Task: inverse folding
């Protein structure tokens, strides 16, 4: 099994996995006559009802073969599964990207999807892998091997209330200077321009900063970071991106935002206390029970930066809701087959209609199956010329927790200069990659010329 130059062994993940509780999840309804395939799904904002329905359909389709999917979900799925991974008794298929996937890949504890991707998915006669939108399979790719499959498309955008914008005569900005001017107009109207999920800045602020890195420096700046190049965060392009983001939050962010959780800040947004918020596509589903009547959630892509090298039609995005198959599972082939059921053109329209997810497959989510809010995301996706993301946040979890988490929060508060921010990130990355046990998988470099950018 090829994993590039990954070197971490199973002993390297023991400490991380042992942090979970020592709970055994029995397989419901197991008996001696059926092949019971256990599937564990993180039970978050999307729930597990839709996944359960697809499992029931799979079971009906395979009733004559004696195969049965037993699917369960829990908000604490990762904690339940960690000790089972150590005991070599994991579920056959897992959806929970909060587990340390790169550590598991480096320890040869996950199977690649390549053979499954070469076979047709339900509802298609084409190879499953050919159906995915560009870039969707890159996040957990090591060399030629793909170790986790996204069940949803992830796009990072700026959200606003279209009704509020109409009433005030505001329009989504096309450039960063227009964005800054718009924020000043919003502040003058007595509304905070930007809500921020500040308590979790290492996720929410981070993704907006990454978007600005591309807008300023193009995909070449993204390649430097993905390639773990020394000084990538101290490069003038990355420093300028940090400066733009810091100025935005310090000058236009909602007061007290750094103490707010994601739901607290998002409540500020849906209650019109703040006009805009940067977030992923799950925002509507997460806030649907709190949204007042008449609220018109729409989004726009991160504006172009004047003098920047990046193509503004590039979309900050990646796959989400990742599925993976543990080596120590019992029924690998059936697990892969069920994964292709969940992420297939046959069931993508119902997935969009039922739980508000845009499929990672190309053109698989009809516009009439999703809400107007998600349709605005679909417009951004369809107008994009490619996607980009960086994986250092997932690749180096200790760096994220010990260095980046603190640094980006201090940047948002204005307590750390953009130059110092870049230096701290670079020093932390250098220390992490100097460890011979840290995973250093090959990455997929983006070609600037392919996206209309200069090298």
Result:
């Amino acid at each position: 099994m090829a994993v590039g130059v990954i070197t971490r062994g199973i002993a390297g993940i023991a400490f991380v996995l042992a942090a979970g509780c020592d709970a055994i999840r029995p397989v419901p309804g197991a008996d001696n006559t059926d092949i019971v395939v256990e599937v564990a799904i993180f039970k978050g904002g999307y729930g597990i009802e839709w996944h359960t329905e697809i499992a029931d359909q799979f079971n009906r389709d395979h009733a004559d073969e004696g195969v049965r999917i037993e699917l369960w979900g829990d908000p604490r799925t990762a904690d339940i599964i960690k000790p089972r991974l150590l005991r070599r008794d994991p579920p056959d298929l897992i959806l929970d990207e909060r587990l340390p996937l790169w550590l598991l890949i480096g320890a040869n504890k996950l199977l690649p999807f390549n053979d499954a991707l070469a076979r047709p998915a339900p509802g298609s006669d084409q190879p499953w892998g050919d159906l995915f939108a560009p870039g969707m399979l890159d996040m957990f790719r090591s060399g030629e091997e793909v170790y986790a499959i996204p069940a949803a498309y992830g796009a990072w955008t700026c959200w606003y209330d279209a009704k509020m914008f109409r009433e005030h005569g505001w329009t989504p900005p096309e450039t960063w200077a227009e964005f800054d001017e718009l924020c000043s107009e919003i502040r003058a109207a007595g509304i905070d321009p930007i809500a921020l999920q500040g308590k979790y800045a290492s996720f929410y602020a981070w993704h907006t900063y990454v978007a600005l890195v591309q807008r300023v420096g193009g995909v070449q700046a993204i390649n430097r970071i993905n390639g773990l190049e020394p000084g990538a965060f101290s490069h003038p392009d990355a420093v300028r991106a940090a400066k733009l983001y810091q100025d935005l939050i310090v000058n236009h962010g909602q007061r007290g935002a750094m103490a707010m959780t994601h739901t607290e800040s998002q409540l500020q947004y849906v209650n019109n206390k703040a006009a805009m918020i940067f977030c992923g596509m799950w925002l509507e589903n997460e806030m649907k029970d709190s949204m007042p009547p008449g609220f018109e959630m729409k989004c726009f892509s991160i504006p172009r930066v004047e003098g920047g090298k990046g193509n503004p039609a590039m979309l900050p995005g990646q796959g989400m809701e990742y599925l993976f198959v543990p080596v120590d599972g019992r029924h690998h082939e059936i697990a892969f087959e069920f994964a292709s059921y969940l992420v297939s053109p046959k069931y993508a329209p119902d997935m969009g209609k039922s739980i508000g997810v845009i499929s990672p497959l190309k053109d698989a989510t009809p516009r009439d199956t999703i809400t107007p809010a998600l349709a605005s995301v679909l417009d951004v996706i369809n107008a994009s010329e490619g996607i980009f993301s960086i994986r250092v946040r997932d690749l180096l979890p200790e760096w994220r927790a010990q260095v980046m988490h603190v640094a980006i929060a201090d940047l948002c508060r204005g307590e750390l200069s953009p130059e110092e921010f870049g230096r701290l990130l670079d020093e932390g990355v250098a220390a992490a990659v100097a460890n011979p046990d840290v995973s250093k998988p090959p990455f997929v470099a983006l070609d600037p010329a392919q996206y209309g950018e200069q090298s």
